[in-house]
Here is the input.
Amino acid sequence: MKPADCATMADVRAEIDRIDGALVALLTERAGYIDRASELKPALGLPARIDDRVEDVVAKVKARAMAEGLDPELVEALWRRLIDWSIAREEAVIGRD
Here is the structure.
């Protein structure tokens, strides 16, 4: 259903709940890749935080946000928090630099 197709607040809330569920599922999938990275990085001599990669990820999501008409500053703030959480998750396994 598209936002304009929602006739009631119940419709709007149901769609938001559906999207929230999908976002949680995607974040869970992303966390699985973070866990795999924490398994692979030690053998490659890579630290949890790789600043160039952080900035690359942020640039990509900001560009995507702009293309989709979403506030890129909001997306940057959300992704920097997500990235910090991801790095902390990796550091719990492989340690700090």
About this structure: Residues 3-94 form a domain with the Chorismate Mutase Domain, subunit A fold (CATH 1.20.59.10). Helices lie at 9-44, 51-68, 72-94.
